[in-house]
Specification:
This protein is of the alpha/beta class. The chain is about 50% helix and about 10% strand. The mean pLDDT is about 95. Bound molecules: 6-O-phosphono-beta-D-fructofuranose. 6-O-phosphono-beta-D-fructofuranose binds next to loops.
């Protein structure tokens, strides 16, 4: 047993869970008329209702005691103060500095100043592209921008530009290429004119195999379809922390937008990785996104733990995962514009907290991380909600929706929200035998038919959900929402005593890829792998 799972704070939550498990969520609602007021928090235009979580006041008190036992308040301070909390890479995690209006100093250097310079360049560049001051080799203005990146260098900008489509300029069509599968690049390029296309090579390290392969192929396409080597520099720009590698690729410093190693890849949309965002929605909207995130940062840094939204959300996740055995969490946005939000959060949570070693190098004896997935409602309702309602596993979920639609149309939005509310109510309440029986009787079924159907018509309920409503999905609200989840992930990591800012788990696959790639291109006998991998390689070689 580890110090954490042996601690009185942990054991107290465990003991409380075994008592609370005897009552259902419906019971808890019946016992307390003020549950909604007690277990919901508001921040600006956003409401976070966690009353449909299987908790009582005591649960929150005990989870807060656990947070204090893990020194959460101090760790929040460590992050904002720029301490090197990414211990395995000896780096700070200062994505909050990118959106802070205060001056942030790191290792004696005013990094706010450096950030300001880059943001100014991004604004100037985007204006110059929009007003045609910057043009392609033929003298025509740019019509298309292709962001080539993967992971954090793709998912953040892609999710944000999809979410904020109503705020986007029609002058620029934005495309994202991430997969090393050539079909994505092919499908993107075949509709584009090299003379009016601008490529952003977005990579923190500028060594990521997928991104560099796509970047070289895009350059090859450019020079063989009308452009030439001399005009590459007008059409290719880079966003990276690795200036040397950018130069080696052939992109000049003037065409490079830098960021810094204290910005983690999955926390980088706030940096120059957001250049594609700026090109699409403009600098003012990007600043509004940053301002929304900063507001949430301040809330997280200064609000007492019991009223602190990311803290409560993080602790509820701990409650679900570690004390209720719920290891799958759905993100269900009732907003089509948020259709990439689940994928974005998947990287944020799973790459951050998918760890099994503590900050002190010990193997954990408790679950960390969780499986994050999801789809926009109402599509999910007609696909996987069956399992949420009647499956054997309990899955927790966040439901998210704006109160105002960006494009009101008849009663679509009311219908959408009616579905949202109905689903969370159904997941919580379920339907017992008695109710299901009465319904079948009223529908005219015979007792014999009812006997057969009844077990299928009941719902266990008791499925925990959190509902997040906001007025409108505008840049500020989106910034707030993303920062809220970033901090929630951080809170979980502190309870688990793991480093959420590294990602060593992606390395082994990369190493083996490098070993296997030449084997696919040769005729030599392959014996160095296990029988399955050898067999797969042979089958591929014989059929490619
Ligand atoms: O392999 C994982 C990862 O390092 C992510 O953390 C990161 O967002 C992604 O690859 C892309 O990295 P880069 O921006 O350096 O190309």
């Amino acid at each position: 047993m580890s110090a954490l799972t042996e601690s009185p704070a942990w054991l107290a939550v465990e003991k409380h869970q075994s008592t609370l498990a005897q009552s259902t969520l419906s019971d808890l609602f019946k016992q307390d008329n003020h549950r909604f007021d007690r277990f919901s928090l508001q921040f600006e235009d956003m409401l976070v209702d966690f009353s449909k979580q299987h908790i009582t006041n005591q649960t929150i008190d005990l989870l807060l005691a656990l947070a204090r036992h893990q020194n959460l308040e101090q760790w929040i301070g460590h992050m904002f103060n720029g301490e090197k909390i990414n211990s395995t890479e000896d780096r700070a995690a200062l994505h909050t500095a990118l959106r802070s209006k205060k001056t942030v100093v790191l290792d004696g250097e005013n990094i706010s100043h450096k950030i300001g310079i880059v943001f100014e360049r991004m604004a100037r560049f985007s204006t110059a592209v929009h007003n045609g001051e910057l043009r392609g080799y033929s003298g025509k203005p740019f019509s298309d921008v292709v962001n080539i990146g993967i992971g954090g260098s793709d998912l953040g900008p892609l999710m944000v530009t999809e979410a904020l489509k109503p705020y986007g300029s029609n002058k620029i069509q934005l495309h994202f290429v991430s997969n090393v599968d050539g079909v994505q690049l092919y499908e993107t390029l075949q509709h584009l004119n090299p003379a009016t296309t601008l490529f952003i090579i977005a990579s923190k390290t500028f060594t990521t195999q997928e991104t560099m392969t796509n970047a070289y192929s895009a350059r090859e396409w450019f020079v063989t379809h009308g452009g030439n080597k001399a005009t590459v520099s007008r059409h290719f720009i880079a966003v990276s922390t690795n200036q040397d590698a950018v130069r080696q690729f052939g992109i000049e410093t003037d065409n490079t937008f830098e960021f810094w190693d204290w910005v983690g890849g999955r926390y980088s949309l706030w940096s120059s990785i957001g250049l594609s965002i700026v090109l699409k929605i403009g600098m003012d909207n990007f600043q509004a996104l940053l301002a929304g995130a900063e507001a949430m940062d301040q809330h997280f840094e200064t609000t007492p733990l019991q009223h602190n939204i990311p803290v409560i959300l993080g602790l509820l996740a701990i409650w679900q995962i570690n004390f209720n055995g719920i290891r799958s969490h759905a993100i269900l946005p009732y907003d089509q514009y948020l259709h990439r939000f689940p994928a974005y959060l998947q990287q944020l949570e799973m790459e951050s907290n998918g760890k099994r070693i503590t900050r002190h190098g010990e193997i954990v004896d408790y679950d960390t991380g969780t499986i994050i997935w999801g789809e926009p409602g109402t599509n999910g309702q007609h696909a996987f909600y069956q399992l949420l309602h009647q499956g054997t596993q309990t899955i927790s979920a966040d439901f998210l929706a704006p109160c105002q639609s960006q494009h009101p149309m008849g009663n679509h939005h009311q219908l959408l929200l009616a579905n949202f509310f109905a689903q969370t109510e159904a997941l919580m309440q379920g339907k017992n035998n008695q109710k299901a029986h009465a319904e079948l009787v009223s529908q005219g079924f015979s007792e014999e038919e009812i006997k057969k159907l009844l077990p299928h018509k009941t719902f266990p309920g008791n499925r925990p959900t959190t509902s997040i409503l906001f007025k409108k999905l505008d840049p500020r609200t989106l910034g707030t929402l993303i920062a809220m989840y970033e901090h929630k992930v951080y809170v979980q990591s502190i309870i688990w005593d793991i480093n959420p800012f590294d990602q060593w788990g992606v390395e082994l696959g990369k190493q083996l890829t490098n070993k296997i790639l030449p084997e696919l291109e040769q005729e030599k006998a392959i014996t160095s792998h296990d029988a399955s991998t050898n067999g797969l390689i042979y089958f591929f070689r014989n059929n490619q």
